[in-house]
Amino acid sequence: MKALLLTALQVALIAMLVQAQVEDATEENAYNQKPKFYQDFLNFSSGKKDLTRLDAFVMIPYTTIQFVKSDNGFDGSYSITISVFDKDKEKLIEEKSWNENINAKDFNEATNKENYSLNLKSFYLQPGEYFIRTSVEDKESSAEYPKEFNLKIRNLSEPLAVSDIMLLDKRVKEDGKNKISPNITGNVSLQKDGLPIFYEIYSDKPEKLNIDYTVLDKREHKIYDYSVVKDIDTGRTQVFYTIKDSSLSLGLYRLEVQLKNSDDKTLASIARPFYSRWAGIPSTVDDLSKAVDEMVYIASPGEIAGIKSAKTKEEETQRFLAYWKNMDPTPGTSENELFDEYYGRVAYANEHFSRYMPGWRSDQGMVFILLGPPDNVDRHPFDMDSKPYEIWQYYNLNRSFIFVDETGFGDYRLITPLTGDLYKFRR
């Protein structure tokens, strides 16, 4: 019984701590989800039996870097550190740090959202589980942007093996050689001629393989399926392939490549996720159907039903975009601030207030999405004669909202109802 009580208290405390800074949430420091940099880590054969080559691509958008005026235009600089630890984060296996300088000829080049700086470093590691930390620091502002994740280094010395899949931005031929530009972001929406990919096959003998290419959406529905026959050389065979005729609407997808023999037996396979996001859509939106449902705090039931009544995904996406274009407070610019802020609040609510239901459907999520972060939160998690409760104060509205945790597991319910003009999205 004591153990159960302790667990309940721990859960409640964790829930409280997760929400503890809601009053400090702003578009700049909490729910602006735009990545400061992109990275892609890919396994390739090193040619050595006991080592795999890990290629680390890091892409730094110019908008992440603070440029300063110089005699030659605008200069920016940054440093990157990639640290490889064992899976328990106790031992540093290898680390690489380097500095990069960027020169932009004018202000427009320095602030162009399409411009970026691309970096590549390779590590040679034994197969196994690792922990990776990438840190990018802007030298001018001293702002640091870290990312951490676990990574599996694969054994590619089997008689037949396949590397990771590299998404390509474009592929050209120069002097008879393939020149490739990797797609580091994983967004394929702008590639109207299909999805080009690159990978390598490693074999200890020449053979003929059936290669199956499959694309599945988030719900595991197959939207692309095609097979080709390819002759494989001994050693390393580089493969370029373009997935065409696939209908990619807004959302997350998974690409699978399977190598099979003539009996349709799978000998090796590899998969990787990617996503399709159209220009102007907030980075937090990755599921159109869910995004339409989440519009409940800003759109009327009729407007939501109108979007959902579309006969195709493409038409639904167009109606969705048309709604937000009509709501754009600055239609003459490339930014739709209302679009970004609304789904930024939704993402924050989903991250911080999800318990028995998605955060955007919770009472705290509803208030946060409608009114933004409170000016002050008065918390009472352990009062003797009451259940845990919080009071969210909004000074500009001269209103306070009380949430009570009826279950003791962080499921705070609103007991001060939103009525009339309060049930209206505010920036």
Order of helix and strand elements from N to C terminus? HEEEEEHEEEEEEEEEEEEHHHHHEEEE
Q: For the CA atoms, what is the radius of gyration?
A: 25 Å
The span between the termini is 47 Å
Note the total helix count.
7
Overall strand count: 21
- What low-confidence regions span 5 or more consecutive residues with pLDDT below 50? 1-20
* Range of strand content: 35-45%
What overall geometry do the principal axes of the alpha carbons give? Answer: globular
Class derived from helix and strand content: alpha+beta
Summarize this, please?
With 427 residues, the chain is an alpha+beta fold.
Task: Characterize the structure shown.
Strands 3, 4, 5, 7 and 8 form a five-stranded antiparallel β-sheet that branches. Strands 9, 10, 11, 12 and 15 form a five-stranded antiparallel β-sheet that branches. Residues 1-20 have low confidence and may be disordered. The chain has three domains: 2-29 and 282-422, no CATH class; 38-156, Immunoglobulin-like (Sandwich); 158-281, Immunoglobulin-like, CATH 2.60.40.10. With 427 residues, the chain is of the alpha+beta class. The protein is 18% helix and 42% strand. Helix 4 runs antiparallel to helix 5 (313-327) and helix 6 runs antiparallel to helix 7. It contains seven helices and 21 strands. Strand 19 and strand 20 (399-405) form a beta hairpin.
